[in-house]
Amino acid sequence: MEDRTFYTRFIGVNALALILVSGTLLIPTISQHFRMGLFSMIFFSIFVWVAFLLGKKAASSKNLNDFTRLAIGLIFAKFAVCIIGVLLYNKIATPSDNLYLIPFFSLYLLYSFFEFRVLSKLGYSGKS
Q1: Do 107 and 44 contact (CB within 8 A), yes or no?
Q2: In which domain, by residue range, is 28 found?
Q3: Which of 43, 51, 57, 114 has its CA 20 to 30 A from that of 14?
Q4: Total tally of structural domains belonging to the chain
Q5: 59-115 tens-digit pLDDT
Q6: Region of 68 on the Ramachandran plot (φ > 0 left; ψ -120 to 50 alpha; else beta)
Q7: Is the pTM of this model over 0.85?
């Protein structure tokens, strides 16, 4: 995947995520979790961007296992950080309900799908 293609699609995904997070302001029961959604969007954006940069490097590596190890490592790292983030939010913000999980996991799925597509294209092409 070329840099230009990635960044064009990355902007589109971030715009979609911003619409999703802004849409939470329209729903009174979820609007109190707007900051959590915004923080999640920023975190997932940075994570996908770093995954792209690392994926480019691993895809062009002579060791064919580097890319596979990277992809598996990213899956586990994101999952672990998300679990810790949700637990910390529960501990710090003490939300009265669990509705914040709706925008959080919506963003998680959106960015995970995009990350999967990006890494698939990088792994398939084998070039940066």
Answers
A1: yes
A2: 3-125
A3: 57
A4: 1
A5: 888 887 888 899 999 999 999 999 999 999 999 988 888 888 988 999 999 999 999
A6: alpha
A7: yes
Buried b (16+ CB within 10 A) or exposed e, 111-127: bbebbeebbebbbeeee
Residue 50 has which token pair? Answer: 């770093």
Q: Sign (positive/negative) of CA torsion 77, 82, 88, 91?
A: negative
Residue type, 110: L
For 11-70, how does the pLDDT look when each residue is reduced to its tens digit (9 = 90+)? 999 999 999 999 989 998 888 889 999 999 999 999 999 999 999 999 888 887 888 899
Let me know if 106 is exposed, middle or buried by CB neighbors in 10 A (0-12, 13-18, 19+): middle
Number of H helices, E strands in the chain: 5, 0
